[in-house]
Specification:
Shape: globular
Bound molecules: S-adenosyl-L-homocysteine
Number of strands: 21
Length: 508
């Protein structure tokens, strides 16, 4: 994820990327043409056939328990995390490198050791911050969008509301608080959280103010409800597990950017897949595959959707089969059950070149450095999402539009004014900064604090795209203005305004 840094990283980078060429520019700023230098502090990429691999030899087992371990060596061994050992074992037992996608999947979501699995990674004490954590207005505006869609569907009495990768559950908590007065809407909601991390599931349970109750028929299955709206809530490991058969509203905020992707690099023999290997001195490095890999099929598919000129200019291409497949799964569900999906993420409306990055404690780090201790994320290829959705019948795709346009059309300006009318000075500062972060571009002009903490706007770097059932209109266009007004008036009422949440304490 191009996570919005809470504090801007001291090595400030230019993230503004409105076209694929600017991604290349961003990566090229740090260096020459070699791919290794395009990744911050990255390892060299070697061609597999060029590596001096020693042939497998017969091994003799030695009991080393009684041997003296020099201090340096013991230190190195104890410093190696379980995840690092696990990754090295995969590479060793397979007898060759793994794809960047396999590496990313193990690092982020390995069921025992993955980055997301055992900790809360968000906020000032974590590694990065996301829009819902910046301001309550973000979740409230998504609530406005969802209610518009529900109105357009003809106010169905039962709806599945699905969030993919809900993090701390903050977005949905703000969403539900915002729409809580619309009883017909909230009574229709069946909430489904798609979350792989048990730790984050617990946080989501808490933030949605859930209670667990014995089911009415006295059987063992307990029902969980959010006390914010009384809606039933359940958790699932994947979208596939969410029951079908009801109109569905799906929200995916900063979910697609964490999906494992394959990286390809142009070499003299054509496009080669970049792989992760282990060197003789036991550190990770990138190598290039000597022959086509299975993911090459997805590369070919992606290239067919692009201009040959666009591809010709690039030395690197990222392809995310999981994003393409998930988009089709979402689209099929919406095409059959009705409803719509909203995808918000940072990304490009075109081929993505070389964007994978690692962030630890609000700073960029090497992708291969101590895997599992930093977030890995990449730009989302919105054009590939659009093409994948358009292959499915019964849905139409809208956008991408910038986050700034999207939140603006939903009336965030009115919401911020209402909040500012009824707040303390401290709250006002937090509301203004939060608003700027959500819709602004570049560095905040009002900032008087230290340079390296200047808030940076996410308004144009983040984009919103909607996939909706064909008969429904789209995200936010003039025909919805009436509904939006009605909702905004409600969420701007005195009672709700008192519910101001100060999320970010800006250090000055
Ligand atoms: N939407 C939240 C969190 C984004 S971080 C926000 O904006 O604050 C990505 C989220 O997706 C985390 O909750 C992570 O645990 C979850 N996640 C990542 N990969 C996943 C997968 N393959 N299946 C289910 N959840 C996943």
């Amino acid at each position: 994820m191009l996570r919005k840094f809470l504090l801007q990283a001291s090595t400030r980078r230019n993230f503004s990327a409105s076209s694929s060429s600017s991604v290349a520019f961003f990566r090229q700023c740090s260096s020459s043409s070699s791919s290794s230098s395009q990744i911050p502090n990255s390892h060299f990429v070697e061609h597999m056939e060029d590596t001096n691999e020693t042939p497998p030899s017969a091994t003799i087992s030695i009991d080393r328990t009684a041997l003296y371990n020099p201090p340096e060596q013991s230190h190195e061994q104890s410093a190696e995390s379980e995840l690092v050992k696990h990754l090295k074992n995969i590479i060793k037992f397979r007898g060759g490198p793994v794809t960047v996608a396999e590496y990313m999947e193990e690092v982020l979501t390995n069921p025992k050791l993955g980055y997301y699995i055992n900790r809360d990674v968000f906020g000032a004490d974590g590694d990065f911050i996301t829009s819902p954590e910046v301001s309550q207005m973000f979740g409230e505006m998504i609530g406005v969008w969802a209610m518009c869609l529900w109105e357009q569907m003809g106010r169905p009495s039962k709806v599945n509301l699905v969030e993919l990768g809900p993090g701390r559950g903050t977005l949905l908590a703000d969403f539900l608080r915002g729409v809580s007065k619309f009883k017909n809407f909230t009574d229709s909601l069946h909430i489904h959280m798609v979350e792989c991390s048990p730790t984050l599931q617990k946080l989501q349970y808490r933030n949605l103010k859930c209670v667990t109750e014995d089911s009415a028929d006295g059987n063992e299955k307990k029902g969980i409800n959010s006390t914010i709206t009384g809606s039933p809530v359940s958790w699932h490991a994947s979208l596939e597990q969410v029951p079908t058969g009801l109109p569905t509203i799906i929200v995916a905020h900063e979910f697609f950017d964490a999906l494992p992707l394959h990286q390809f690099q142009k070499a003299s023999r054509g496009w080669c897949e970049k792989m992760v290997d282990v060197t003789e001195n036991s550190s990770f490095r990138f190598v290039l595959s000597p022959q086509p890999t299975p993911a090459t099929l997805y590369l070919m598919k992606r290239c067919k959707w692009a201009d040959s000129e666009e591809i010709f200019k690039l030395d690197h291409i990222e392809v995310c089969p999981k994003a393409m497949d998930l988009t089709q799964e979402i689209s099929k569900r919406i095409g059959i059950d009705g409803g719509g999906a909203l995808i918000i993420d940072y990304g490009l409306n075109g081929v993505v070149s070389n964007s994978l990055q690692a962030i630890r404690k609000h700073k960029f780090v090497d992708i291969l450095d101590n895997p599992g201790s930093a977030d890995l994320s990449a730009y989302v290829d919105f054009a590939a999402i659009r093409h994948s959705a358009e292959e499915v019948s019964g849905v139409s795709v809208h956008g991408p539009m910038t986050q700034s346009q999207f939140l603006g059309s939903l009336g965030i300006n009115f919401r911020v004014e209402a909040l500012l009318e009824n707040c303390t000075e401290e709250q006002a500062e937090s509301i203004r900064t939060g608003y700027w972060r959500l819709v602004g571009e570049g560095e905040a002009p009002f900032w008087e604090g230290p340079d390296n903490q200047t808030p940076i706007g996410m308004g144009t770097r983040y984009m919103a795209m909607a996939i909706v059932m064909c008969l429904l209109c789209s995200v936010v266009f003039p025909c919805h203005v009436l509904i939006i007004n009605e909702m905004l008036i409600s969420i701007c009422e005195e009672e709700n305004v008192k519910n101001i949440i100060v999320r970010i304490k800006n250090k000055k």
